[in-house]
Amino acid sequence: MSTLQHQIIVVGGGPVGAAAALALSQQGFEVALLERGSAPPAYDPAGYDLRVYALAPHSARLLDGLGVWPEVLARRASPYGAMRVWERGPEHALRFDCADTGRAELGWIVEHSLVVDRLWAKLDGVVRYERAAIESAVFGEAGTILRLSDGRELRAPLVVAADGAESQLRGLAGIDTVGWGYAQRAIVCHVRTQQPHRATAWQRFLSSGPLAFLPLADGRCSIVWSAEEALAQELLALDDAAFLARLGEALEHALGEVLDATPRISFPLRLLHAQDYVRPGLVLVGDAAHAIHPLAGQGVNLGFADVQELARTLAVSRDAGRDWAGLRNLQRYARARKAANLEMLTLTDGLYRAFRLRVPGLKAVLGLGMEAVGRLGPLKAWLARQAANA
């Protein structure tokens, strides 16, 4: 059995894991990245990935600091400067504009494959283990031992779990989670509309779940339609013409007719939160620590904020001569991120439940509330900053 030693091992090569590996490497740590699958395929600009993110300004700043953001912008990103959110009648929408935040844009719609491609392209200083399956793990104050299915053994003072909502490492460490399924499924595709999207993100709250139209760089929109399971299955079974008609009606034709769409994909929705973010020799980031309803578009942004805080916490402790991988230092990271993540999880879950309650008159009150907020400058500006997660 061969034993290989590293300072930090990041498990999971998605956008959050790759960003963590790169950020920690740039802070001067000796880092290895372990990916269960193969390296991601090269970004193909001829296609358009159905998986897109609404990146907030703080995420763009992180990627810029990693040397990735200019390359993303040079290839394909769609800035949006406004959001329109309503329940009934787009003319009554609550309007968020970049002017409310003092920024040139609220965020950017960017493809998953482009972000991952550019992050992996920067990993020259990171040791990579691909197609590497973990068989067992031992966590302790002296560090973590990962045993792989091919017989190799990896050791490090710290392992970073960025291995997703079904995190194997979280399970091996015995960290419990709280959460629930929403009995909803998100339907995703790209569509072309009769009217231009005007660099605006459009979202309507329906009784069955929120529907979002996100502006893409090629003039189309990426849609995320969160619907109750039975309705989702009905929508997935429709032919294209019927689906386009239902989609236009659901958005109340805010962008005119929906003219065509790519094939649809779907995934179930749930809320998940790890009861602990750390164990001796282990720290959770991204979906391994928290999964969130997509109505606020903040999933990957929370993960990138985890990365930023973790890299800062470890580097500050090391530079001060303290035990940077010790549990006490890891708990500093956990305290900072748990508070921020719980705030966003509570906000999105509360919004979901508020619009799902079938209480007579409640939705009318909520609709009036949206209009009222739109007339209150300071409150509207605060909400706009929250929407952009700046």
In short:
With 390 residues, the protein is an alpha/beta fold. It has a domain at 3-50 and 114-178 and 271-351: FAD/NAD(P)-binding domain. It has helices at residues 15-26, 57-65, 69-75, 112-121, 168-172, 229-237, 240-250, 299-319, 327-356, 362-374, 377-388, and strands at 3-5, 8-11, 31-35, 52-55, 78-80, 82-86, 94-97, 107-111, 127-130, 134-140, 143-148, 153-156, 158-161, 177-193, 200-206, 209-215, 221-228, 258-261, 265-274, 278-279, 282-284, 290-291.
Give an overview in words.
The chain is an alpha/beta fold and 390 residues long. It has a domain at 3-50 and 114-178 and 271-351: FAD/NAD(P)-binding domain, CATH 3.50.50.60. Helices cover 36% and strands 30% of the residues. Strands 6, 7, 14, 15, 16, 17, 18, 19 and 22 form a nine-stranded mixed beta sheet that branches. A six-stranded mixed beta sheet has the order 9-3-2-13-21-20, with helices on one face. The model is unreliable at 358-382 (pLDDT under 50).
